[in-house]
Amino acid sequence: MLVKKLCSDQLLHPAVQQSVASRSSIRVADVATGTAIWLTELSDALPADSQLLGFDISADQYPPEEWLPGNISLHEQDAFKPFSPELLGSFDVVHLRFVITLLNAGNIRPLLDNLKTLLKPGGFLQWLDFDPRSARAIATRPDMHMPRTESVVSIMRKAQPDVDSWILQNSDLLETAGLNAIAYERLQLRNYLRPVWNHCHIMGMEELSRRMNRGEDKPSPLQQQIKDLEAEFAQGASVDAEWFIMVGQMPDKQE
């Protein structure tokens, strides 16, 4: 829901949608697919013969196969490692989202180079994420005390200390990877989506808490922080950040 509403109910960028609209079927890869919700919603909007493949480093969030449309298949795959030979050069669209916390100046180019191998000539790479440099704590009341929310913002802003050296205010990043720049847009989260966005932060902290406490009998030290953050969110606090969507296109063979 968050991704779709953030992008004005468009799962594919208009430039991508316009290019593939007349085709009888397309092949789509969703990298860091998570629960495969993006693929599942996209399946309803594409011709039935389209093939949709989801990839994630872990299958922990994958729904049962029986709950998925028949044209969706999910696979465990580290996006930084080479894909199987039969997948190379076979996708019309490669979709990427919510990976910025994993990236730095040393691995962004290898990631883009690896994803580019999946694209057909003329295929599109679409990437949606938030800009950590823009993160700030906001509240419905100007006098609200929100130390936990401000702590989350601090973590987001410090997560990639070298971010200014590689994330650009345009699609030049894709051009350096050998793709033709098609679109770059900045997006703003609308207020009615903030409860969903807040819940994403809570789930992320709960997952981190589980990992930190694996094999331990005592409660995770993060549990109280999570409760404090939930209380601040309930009182009208939130983390604001600008988002971006960038689209690049694989050059045709003749270019």
TrEMBL record:
One of its GO terms (molecular function) is methyltransferase activity. The keyword Methyltransferase applies. SUPFAM superfamilies: S-adenosyl-L-methionine-dependent methyltransferases. The keyword Translocase does not apply. Pfam families: Methyltransf_23 (PF13489). Keywords: Methyltransferase, Transferase. One of its GO terms (biological process) is methylation. It comes from the Eukaryota. Belongs to the methyltransferase superfamily. LaeA methyltransferase family. PANTHER family: METHYLTRANSFERASE, METHYLTRANSFERASE DOMAIN-CONTAINING PROTEIN-RELATED. This is SAM-dependent methyltransferase. It comes from Trichoderma parareesei (Filamentous fungus).
